[in-house]
Amino acid sequence: MKKEALIIALIMVFSLSAKGQGTRTLYIQVAYGVEAEIGVGEAAIPTDAFLTSKAKPLYAIGAFVQLPIAGSSFNLKPQLRYRQTQIRAVAGEVSSASFSMNSHLVEIPLQLQYYPVRDSRFLPFIFVEPFVGYCLGAKAEGFLFDPSDIGLPDMTLIAFNGNRIESEYLNRFEFGTCVGLGIEWRSFQFSVSYRRNFNKIGKERPYSLYEVGDSKYQNLSLSIGIFLP
């Protein structure tokens, strides 16, 4: 059994290295792979708001199919991806208010890639990637309040202590787009991208996350994809 496993491992290593010899030709057949992503993201709270957003790390993992568009330098790359994001917002000197939220999402991006070079050791590309997603759940800590209530005795306050956020507050469906550039080398794809959600993080009032809920999520990230043999 160990000998068979060793033979399979050697075959996989040989197939990966064989693809990287000499020049690489843009895939002309359907290709499959897996991808991992790391980055930093934040809620895009306006600069004149009471709260200030802080960048927090994110990560994502998924699988993709790369589909060539015949007779062109374009590829389509649909994916299925799991993503975890974090949001943190803090108040200024007026208050010690702070809020943080961890979200878990499943997404379906559709990446359109353009390769200006088709036959080279390195294959640079640019891409645009619209996406839709669904928030599986989120947990929050800290508290939020309506900035217009500051100084009033009956200030509206929402407190969180690590519990799940109820669906009345959270906008579970997301959509947006991502743009970036990358390079393909051997059986790997490396890319850097900027992403922006078009939907607000929270729902409309009276169920609201106030300035956090009224903002939209954005992030910068690095990713690496590996084509499967």
Give keywords.
229 residues; mainly beta; Porin; two-stranded antiparallel ribbon; 10% helix; 59% strand; disordered N terminus
What would you note in describing this structure?
- With 229 residues, this protein is mainly beta.
- It has one domain (30-227): Porin, CATH 2.40.160.
- It has helices at residues 2-19, 210-213; strands at residues 24-25, 31-43, 51-54, 56-68, 74-91, 98-114, 119-120, 122-145, 157-164, 173-185, 188-197, 217-227.
- Strands 2-4-5-6-8-10-11-12 form an eight-stranded antiparallel β-barrel.
- The chain is elongated.
- It starts with a helix and ends with a strand.
The averaged pLDDT comes out at 81
User: Could you give a short account of the major beta sheet?
Assistant: 8 strands, antiparallel, barrel
Stated plainly, the CATH topology is called Porin
Total DSSP helices: 2
Please give the alpha-carbon distance between the first and last residues: 22 Å
Percent helix among the residues? under 10%
CATH class equals Mainly Beta
* Beta-strand residue percentage: over 45%
